[in-house]
């Protein structure tokens, strides 16, 4: 099968198109013919080696973390799916590789594709929809009337998180550029801070939760908008010891993670708020919770551009260069 591979780590490394053996199908696996896959910032981070401590993939490996496609074979223990099912998934972190014609995924990580979406739209959702669910529902237990700030509201994660937070009854603020103010308002944002004109930390106050996808100074300033007892959950900031324990890392790695997040955790404690890091997990059950919201129109995907599969490398470079205007970039199989 054709696939796009990472042959060496590094910022200067580029994906290589090549022929690789078809995947082996385990007893609990479904073999999926990929119809579309989407680009995520995580792809660049993995390729550049920024995630090697957490995700030590042995090169060469196939890149890609989102897919929609059709089941073409099932393992002997599979009970959820049959050949011909249209599905979508974010494969487990140990089994990535959606920039390929075929992929074998554990049945627990797969869900039937929303019937109202195209393959390209469905492929844009799994990673960002699961991240939104795990931050807002599973970790934060966001309640009606609570106030949440979602950074980068026009990005792949932000566009979905805004809609889910509104569905949960929250008051939603977001940051975006001038060009995307109307878009994020249409998704449900109650307060929009144009970061080109305003500093969000001087405008927003007494928030219960911040979903941070930017890290750095944005993460640090986000503590200032929280009320006492509030929390910031970051998918871009430094990992913490709790994540190390969740990952099953050895004590040395957990100590390193704790050291990396020491400053932000200390600053959070001084402000009587909390900081935690979240690395989303694959989950077919959570996708099945989200699917009815998609089919009902409560959550709608935002797709910026669709590239052909042969241009997967160019699609990743397009995202890296910051050329995407809003939502996700998708590659379509031909």
UniProtKB/TrEMBL annotation:
Classification via InterPro entries: ADH-like_N (IPR013154), ER (IPR020843), GroES-like_sf (IPR011032), NAD(P)-bd_dom_sf (IPR036291), Quin_OxRdtase/zeta-crystal_CS (IPR002364), YIM1/Zinc_Alcohol_DH_Fams (IPR050700)
Keyword check for Ribonucleoprotein: no
Residues annotated as domain Enoyl reductase (ER): 10-331
Lineage, top ranks: Bacteria, Bacillati, Actinomycetota, Actinomycetes, Kitasatosporales
SMART domains cross-referenced by the UniProt entry: PKS_ER
Domain of life (superkingdom): Bacteria
CDD domains (UniProt xref): MDR_like_2
Gene Ontology molecular-function annotations: oxidoreductase activity; zinc ion binding
Protein name as it appears in the record: NADPH:quinone oxidoreductase
Organism: Streptomyces hawaiiensis
Keyword annotations from UniProtKB, A to Z: Oxidoreductase
């Amino acid at each position: 099968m054709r696939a796009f591979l990472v042959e060496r780590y590094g910022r200067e490394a580029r994906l290589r198109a090549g022929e690789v053996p078809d995947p082996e199908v385990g007893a609990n696996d479904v073999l999926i013919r990929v119809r579309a896959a989407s680009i995520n910032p995580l792809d660049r981070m993995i390729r550049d080696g920024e995630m090697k401590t957490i995700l030590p993939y042995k090169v060469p490996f196939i890149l890609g973390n989102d897919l929609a496609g059709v089941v073409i074979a099932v393992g002997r223990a599979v009970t959820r799916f049959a050949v011909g099912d249209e599905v979508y998934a974010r494969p487990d972190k140990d089994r990535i590789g959606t920039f390929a014609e075929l992929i074998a995924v554990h049945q627990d990580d797969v869900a039937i594709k929303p019937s109202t979406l195209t393959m390209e739209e469905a492929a844009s959702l799994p990673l960002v929809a699961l991240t939104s669910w795990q931050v807002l529902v599973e970790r934060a237990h966001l309640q009606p009337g609570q106030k949440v700030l979602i950074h980068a509201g026009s990005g792949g994660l932000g566009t979905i998180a805004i809609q889910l937070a509104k569905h949960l009854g929250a008051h939603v603020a977001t940051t975006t550029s001038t060009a995307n103010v109307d878009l994020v308002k249409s998704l449900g944002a109650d307060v929009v801070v144009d970061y080109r004109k305003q500093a969000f930390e001087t405008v927003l106050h007494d928030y219960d939760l911040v979903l941070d996808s930017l890290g750095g100074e944005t993460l640090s300033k986000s503590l200032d908008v929280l009320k006492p007892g509030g929390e910031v959950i970051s998918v871009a900031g430094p990992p913490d010891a709790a994540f190390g324990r969740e990952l099953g890392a050895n004590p040395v790695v957990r100590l390193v993670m704790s050291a990396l997040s020491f400053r932000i955790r200390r600053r959070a404690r001084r402000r009587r708020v909390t900081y935690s890091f979240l690395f989303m997990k694959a989950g077919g059950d959570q996708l099945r919770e989200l699917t009815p919201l998609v089919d009902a129109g409560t959550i709608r995907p935002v797709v910026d551009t669709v590239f052909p599969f042969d241009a997967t490398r160019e699609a990743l470079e397009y995202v890296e260069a910051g050329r995407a205007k809003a939502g996700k970039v998708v590659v379509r199989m031909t």
